[in-house]
Description:
Layout: E1 3-4, H1 13-26, H2 34-47, E2 51-55, H3 58-68, E3 74-77, H4 83-91, E4 95-98, E5 121-127, H5 136-146, E6 149-153, E7 161-162, E8 165-166, E9 173-177, E10 190-194, H6 197-207, H7 228-237, H8 241-258, E11 273-274, E12 281-283, H9 287-299, E13 302-303, H10 324-332, E14 333-335, H11 344-357
Parallel strand pairs: 1-13, 3-4, 3-5, 5-6, 6-9
Antiparallel strand pairs: 2-10, 7-8, 7-11, 9-10, 12-14
Helix pairs in contact: 1-7, 2-7, 3-4, 3-6, 8-11, 9-11
Amino acid sequence: MPINVTQSYLPPLEDYVKYLTGIWERVYLTNAGPLVVELEQRLKDELGVKHLFFVNNGTIALQIAIKALDLKGEVLTTPFSYVATTSSLVWEGCTPVFVDIDPATLCINPALLEAAITPRTVGIMATHVYGNPCDLEAIEAIAKRHNLKVIYDAAHAFGVTYKNSSVLNYGDISTLSFHATKLFHTGEGGAIVTNDDELAHRIAYMRNFGHNGPEAFWGVGVNGKSSELHAAMGLCVLPKVPELIAKRRILSERYDALLDGTKCVRPTIQPHTAYNFSYHPIVLPSEEVLLRVRDNLNAHEITPRRYFYPSLNTLNYVAPQEAPVSEDISRRVLCLPLYYDLQISQVEQVAQLINEVL
Ligand SMILES: *Cc1c(COP(=O)(O)O)cnc(C)c1O
């Protein structure tokens, strides 16, 4: 049986069919349907956030966040993330300015932020990498001091809390991805979270073409809406999330017990964090070792993923900038298979194949 880096959790088919039956009865598929409204309410309650907008993916969530904050100019961002973090800035006409990462947490290094600020800097876009919270308090202090807006790409951070409160409560806006590969998913999907009423109003109309009723417009918008079919998937998966996290934790801890932590170095999780085990990255001693490990796993139909690679400061559509820590880590980091239906025996097999070539 091939083992991929991830496999989507699918709820029992009959659960999904129950929601489909309702959709068929109502003959109502999209535009703030009852399932979308229900999912948004349940997510707000579970996550403990004030405003949450369910959208059709995590990338449009980032793009609407940038537009809602009216960011124009330089945005300080991390080179160690999925490409959407950088591409959405470029797509929206902002200039990404890369600030290197902390080698222990793999999140943006707040000690380097202030040196990168210029008169053109308007904001910070940072990722809670692998669900590990950024240094929230340091970033907040710097943003206040320099009057910068903060967007957190929280695509990996579903359910993560810092000091007993959702990480989504930090910054001006946080965005989530509910892509099929994420811990909580709706097939495709995402969300925009804010505690600011005025921003919430802008996000609400921007998500829906700018509409203010059927014949008037608040301003320019885009189509960020999601459908009843996607909301139904979310409503089936959401109650299962605590169990998904608990299982991932067991598997992740098994990897840790079987692998040498000095050769398979793990990111340092921020203190005061309830982590979600959304990924199992290991940082190997060199790229050569990484390729050896990957090839040995591939030879046994096991596909880990070089995630994140390459470092985003090396993309061909951004101005060349240095980020030596990110470049080094991205050459040596590998995400191991981790998903709800993975068996302990499979974790043991993966670990053994890694140990053979370390
Ligand atoms: C998955 C992901 C995104 C994009 O989300 P989509 O829903 O796939 O558009 C953005 N940022 C990060 C860090 C991600 O992992």
